[in-house]
């Protein structure tokens, strides 16, 4: 898939935002703004947790989901999704099922309230520190379908300098568009060669996806190899069942 620009993407869409983690991404702000959402969800990990916005300055609704922090007991606290700022957390960063369900709860409540939704997932790299590439691929596959079903405009951050080119292109095959941050000058400082950075966003064929998934899982994973058809809205239970191990 050829890289696009935020202005060229018509929301709602699922976007893979490719950039080095050394700098804040200007494209992230554009994608959030261009989505025009009245309800915005930011998903971050505990080591990158942002400060919550002042509720009095929030236009619309803002949700903050932090992964890797929060209570570790069985007490479940559900945020008030009608508040200007609603916060939630998932204590275990390896629990992809619970992360998916927590995101789904925000989207379900906001969609039922008639809100336009934007989502920033920061980042797939952080998730790959806690789960296998095969599991993260499946998580992203299910999650993007879920977010599409409620018309959310979504982008997921991904650092290409930490991964081989074919890994980036394989994850890119899940998304409607790939955006390479034009302000990113650090792509030559990681594992992928600078001369190959643009190629990492090339179209991954079904065979490429199947081959890499087979390496990750040590056996072919044919059910994820082909380009999936859009799905109807998934319930929290279906997400948990699909992602649960």
Strand arrangement, major sheet: 1-8-2-7-6-3-4-5
Named at the architecture level, the CATH assignment is 3-Layer(aba) Sandwich
Distance N terminus to C terminus?
Answer: 31 Å
Shape, per Cα inertia axes:
globular
Helix content: 25-40%
- The total of helices stands at 7
Order of helices and strands: EEHEEEHEHHEHEHH
What is the CATH class designation?
Alpha Beta
CATH topology: Rossmann fold
Cα radius of gyration in angstroms: 17 Å
How many domains? The number is: 1
Q: Give the quaternary arrangement of the chains.
A: single chain
Beta-strand residue fraction = 15-25%
The overall strand count is: 8
Low-confidence stretches: 186-201, 219-233
Average pLDDT figure = 77
**Biggest sheet statistics:** 8 strands, parallel
Class inferred from helices and paired strands = alpha/beta
Can you walk through the features of this model?
By secondary structure, the protein is of the alpha/beta class. The protein is built from seven helices and eight strands; from the N terminus they run E-E-H-E-E-E-H-E-H-H-E-H-E-H-H. The protein has an eight-stranded parallel beta sheet, with helices on both faces. Helix 2 runs antiparallel to helix 7 (236-243).
Task: Give a quick precis of the structure.
By secondary structure, this protein is an alpha/beta fold. It has helices spanning 26-34, 96-112, 124-128, 133-149, 165-172, 206-217, 236-243; strands at residues 3-4, 14-18, 39-45, 61-67, 85-90, 117-122, 153-158, 177-180.
């Amino acid at each position: 898939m050829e890289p696009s620009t935020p202005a060229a993407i018509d929301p709602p869409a699922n976007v893979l935002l490719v950039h080095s983690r050394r700098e804040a991404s200007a494209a992230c702000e554009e994608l959030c703004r261009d989505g025009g959402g009245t309800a915005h969800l930011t998903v971050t990990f505990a080591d990158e947790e942002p400060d919550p916005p002042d509720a009095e300055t929030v236009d619309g609704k803002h949700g903050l989901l932090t992964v890797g922090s929060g209570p570790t007991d069985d007490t479940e606290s559900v945020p008030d999704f009608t508040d200007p700022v609603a916060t939630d957390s998932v204590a275990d960063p390896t629990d992809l099922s619970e992360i998916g369900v927590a995101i789904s709860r925000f989207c379900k409540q906001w969609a039922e309230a008639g809100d336009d939704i934007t989502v920033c997932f920061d980042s797939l790299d952080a998730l790959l520190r806690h789960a296998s590439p095969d599991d993260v691929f499946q998580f992203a596959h299910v999650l993007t379908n879920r977010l599409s079903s409620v018309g959310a405009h979504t982008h997921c951050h991904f650092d290409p300098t930490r991964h081989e080119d074919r890994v980036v292109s394989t994850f890119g095959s899940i998304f409607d568009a790939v955006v390479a941050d034009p302000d990113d000058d650090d792509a030559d400082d990681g594992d992928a060669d600078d001369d190959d950075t643009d190629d990492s966003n090339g179209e991954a064929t079904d065979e490429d996806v199947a081959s890499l998934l087979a390496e990750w899982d040590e056996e072919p994973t044919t059910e994820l190899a082909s380009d999936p058809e859009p799905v109807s809205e998934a319930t929290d239970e279906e997400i948990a069942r699909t992602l649960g191990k």
